[in-house]
Amino acid sequence: MSKIIVNRDPREEKRLVAEGIREQLNSRRILAVxxxxxxxxxxxxxxELALPELSEDxxxxxxxADNATRNDADRLxxxxxNVEMIVQVKDLNxxxxxxxxxxxxxxxx
Length: 109
Prior knowledge:
It is built from 3 helices and 3 strands; from the N terminus they run ααβαββ. By secondary structure, it is α+β, with helices and mostly antiparallel strands. Strands 1-2-3 form a 3-stranded mixed beta sheet, with helices on one face. The chain starts with 11 loop residues before the first helix and ends in a 7-residue tail after the last strand.
C-alpha cells in the first residue's frame, strides 16, 4: 500500500486569506455572517423575511455567490436590499477559478 505524505495543510492558504478578511472586517466593526446550506433549503426565503426588518435598524448588504443565475439576488433586491454578486473568474497565474465581486454598473445613473 502506498502512503501519501502531506508536509503542509492544504487549507492553510485559504485559512490565512480568511483570517485577513476577518481582521479587515473587525477593524471596521463589520459583522459578516456566512449562510451556507443545500440548494432549496430556504436560505433566500429566510433572508427575504428577516433582512427587511433588520435593515430598518442597521445598515446591511448581501453578497450573493450563485454563479448560475441572479435569481436569488433579484429576489433580495426586490425586497429593497443591497446585493452584490460574487462570480468566478480565472486567475491566470493559478489556472483555477477564484471569487471576484462583480458590482452593478452605476455609470448610467
